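Quick one, probably user error.
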């Protein structure tokens, strides 16, 4: 019986030693990293000449009463809207309508002023004629143009493609210098990027034809990519 107890005790001792020395640490194996990675940022851009112009056209009228000022303003704005349509303006929409009292030096009401403004879009080539037509119809408040591309989404997708290519090129340079090779993409995310919005200079309305110079617009995209390493 004594020999049996000694044998059992020896067996437990061997099992304990094997667990402490020879068996793998399962918890440690679960915490081991899956593999090396590298994360880089890529920026891509593309330039294009804007082909659309957005403008604002307004008119201000004054009259002894608010009713008369609003009525005169409505007549003037109808003429402007008709002129914009005839000059190939599109997407015409009211921006604001206002009427307020005008006071003299003593603070007394000396009449009323009414204002109305609309926005309109035209092809860049048609923008000078749009400005001239509105001014001739009575517009005395003109601002813009804001220039944009009608295919802005397609341009942005092209910029995204260039951003991915640049991210891969940068990662390849880094891993080559480290003596490694680039693996597959593990993660990719898009970050917000500002798009410059050029404006043409305003020109004098008494010119024979108001010049509009669109210049070039740069569309930019930025992404972050994580690659595995080999």
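Nope, works fine. Designed sequence:
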């Amino acid at each position: 019986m004594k020999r049996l107890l000694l044998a059992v005790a020896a067996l437990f001792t061997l099992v304990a030693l094997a667990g402490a020395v020879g068996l793998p640490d399962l918890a440690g194996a679960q915490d081991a990293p899956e593999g090396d990675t590298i994360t880089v940022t890529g920026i891509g851009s593309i330039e294009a000449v804007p082909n659309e112009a957005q403008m604002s056209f307004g008119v201000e009228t004054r009259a002894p009463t608010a009713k008369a000022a609003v009525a005169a303003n409505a007549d003037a704005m109808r003429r402007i809207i008709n002129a914009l349509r005839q000059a190939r303006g599109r997407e015409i929409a009211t921006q604001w309508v206002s009427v307020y009292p005008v006071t003299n030096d003593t603070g007394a009401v000396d009449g009323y002023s009414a204002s109305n403004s609309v926005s309109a879009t035209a092809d860049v080539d048609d923008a000078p004629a749009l400005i001239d037509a509105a001014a001739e119809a009575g517009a005395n408040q003109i601002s813009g143009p804001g220039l944009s591309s009608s295919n802005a989404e397609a341009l942005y997708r092209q910029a995204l493609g260039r951003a991915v290519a640049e991210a891969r090129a940068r990662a390849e340079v880094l891993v080559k210098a480290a003596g490694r090779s680039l693996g597959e993409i593990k993660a990719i995310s898009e970050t917000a990027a500002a798009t410059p919005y050029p404006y043409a200079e305003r020109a004098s309305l008494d010119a024979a034809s108001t010049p509009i110079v669109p210049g070039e617009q740069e569309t930019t995209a930025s992404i972050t990519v994580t690659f595995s390493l080999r």
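The chain has five helices and seven strands.
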